[in-house]
Request: fold
Amino acid sequence: MSTITEQKQTTQVYRVFIRATPQAVWDAITTPEWTERYGYGGTVEYEMKQGGSYRHLPSAEMVKAGEEHGFPVPDVIIDGEVLEVDPPKRLVHTWHFMMAPDLADDAVGTITYELEELEGGVTRLTLIHELDGAPATALMVSSDEDPSSGGGGWAWVLSDLKTLLETGSTLAG
Amino acid sequence: MTRDYLVTYSAGVTDDDRVFKALADPTRRFLLDRLFVRDGRTLTALESELEMTRFGVMKHLRVLEDAGLVVTRRSGREKLHFLNPVPIRLIHDRWIDKYTERQVSALADLKTELEETA
Reply:
């Protein structure tokens, strides 16, 4: 992990325009059938109410890769608490990444998804990741390294989500 | 507000022209580099690092925003500017992967070598 400098970078904002309805984008973010098909994969479980739970479970590939590299993948890789739900427009939940021991000292962050319907069947998706006290997580989610070696971060995940919704297949094919 | 959406909308869903155009200016690349180092800055903070009028900096930020490279959010009374890396990622996936990253890095190496010997 590279040295963390004094920079005070506590919030990251990502935005992408997707040719799909807000409902389709919402489903792609919140249902396991969709989340296993793009980005890093794995399946989500949302209890869609304020105070409900959020869990992201690893895919079989993640568990296998973990075994191959000699580190155990936990049964739940990310968990959190749902703070706000307004389908298909707004979802806020805490985000606690538990797969990497080097992030253990980081504070728990908050993710906000904002979905806005624009003219022409386009959804503007904005992801806001609040990362107060989570410098190692901030580096991970903004990584521009190769996704096949674990990099890519949110920019890659959202690009893959866009590609999947618009073309029916992902960047990896 | 509606007009803002239309501008951003056309930037987001047409081709990559706006992104390439936005990146084709050294001041705008400088602004993106500043945001990369420290994200979520006000106009005043960004302006202080450039020998340019406030109006000039605003114009450049507007071009970056229209291209989707900068996203602004309000925080209390302040308007904060955030670097949005997604359009660059999309161009990367569309263009760089296509012509293989190996060739691009070979060219980057060549450029570094030429510049060092120059």
